[in-house]
Every structure is written in C-alpha cells, then in structure tokens.
Design goal:
CATH class of the largest domain: Mainly Alpha
Number of helices: 6
Number of strands: 5
Shape: elongated
CATH superfamily of the largest domain: Winged helix-like DNA-binding domain superfamily/Winged helix DNA-binding domain
Helix content: 40-55%
Distance between the termini: 30 Å
CATH architecture of the largest domain: Orthogonal Bundle
Oligomer: single chain
Strand order of the largest sheet: 2-4-3
Largest sheet: 3 strands, antiparallel
Amino acid sequence: MDVISTPGAAIVALNPVRSHLLSLLQEPRSASELARAAGLPRQKVNYHLKKLEAQGLVTPDEARHWGGITERVMKATARAYVISPETMGPAAVPEPDERADRLSASFLLSLAVEAVRHIGRLLARSRSTGRPVQTFALDADICFASPAARADFARDLAQAVGEVVARHHDDAAPGARRHRLIVGVYPHPETPGAAESPKEGAA
C-alpha cells in the first residue's frame, strides 16, 4: 500500500480510466496486454501510462524484445493507494489541537489524518532506504450496553493505556526512538443508531 501525498499524483490517480489501469497493473502488463484487458486503444493506454509513470504510480518491470522492437512491461508501484489530506493544501485537516475536545469526532478525525500523513512519509523513507517501517496496530469491535458503559470503558482504557505508557516510556535511554500511539473509539457506521444524539456523549 502507498500514500499519495501530492496534488498532481492525486489528480492523475483519481481519473477513472487511470484508476482502472492501476488496478489492472497489479500484475505486470505491456501496453498491448493492458489495452486488451481494459478494452481501450493502445494509443490511449500509452497516453495514460505516461501520466501515471510521471507521477511515480507505475514503473517498468521488464523489457521484452520482439525483433527490432522493445516493449516495456509496466506494473503499479503498490497494491493499493490512499490519498493523503496533504493533497488538499491549506484546506486539509489541520494538525490535532491538544486543547480540542477529545470526545469530539473532529479530534478523532484529525488524529486519523495525522496518522496517514506520518505513515505516508515513513513509507516514502522506507522505499528510499530499503528498511521496513516498524509499526503495530490493534483493531477490535465492542458492544456497549449503554452510554454509561461506554463512558466507563473510555475511562478504564485511558487509565490502562496511561499505565502501560508510563511503564515503558524511557526518553533518557541512549538511542531512544520516539513513537506515536493513537487510540480511537467510534460507533460503527453500519450499526443502526450510529449517528447518536450529542446528549448521549461519545467515547
């Protein structure tokens, strides 16, 4: 997976034809093979491939030689793409405000956006250095019997995370490397009643 962080690459990738070609290039294909798979003229495919290659979204995989003709085989640079809010420029979601309401959806969204920004930069650095990004993630679903139970969970989770962080945090150790931890809880959007009244609170 890769994160698109420039407006030019985002514009190119969001074009419906080019997006379809990117999906077809999960497997390396020549322009003629891609044209047959997409049902498009080869000349048109070549035009779109040049746009994708210019933005670093596709790359040559090999060259096939047929007589005196060399045909390049192209492939997508990632299995899937996420467009970073950075591409929106000044209109992008701002950095999280430490003074913000931590029970608000806006604060959670700003944290998620920050994670996309950071991980996108780490992936770019990983490609240039050849070193993998060291990450860890958890994902779980939980059902609360009531808003009060949800509030209790938020309190207990904050306390537990604080204790774990305090136990392992050591910024004085030689070579200590700073990591970012984000924890979010939100109603599953596919669950009835996900858009709840503000009176019920949020976790």
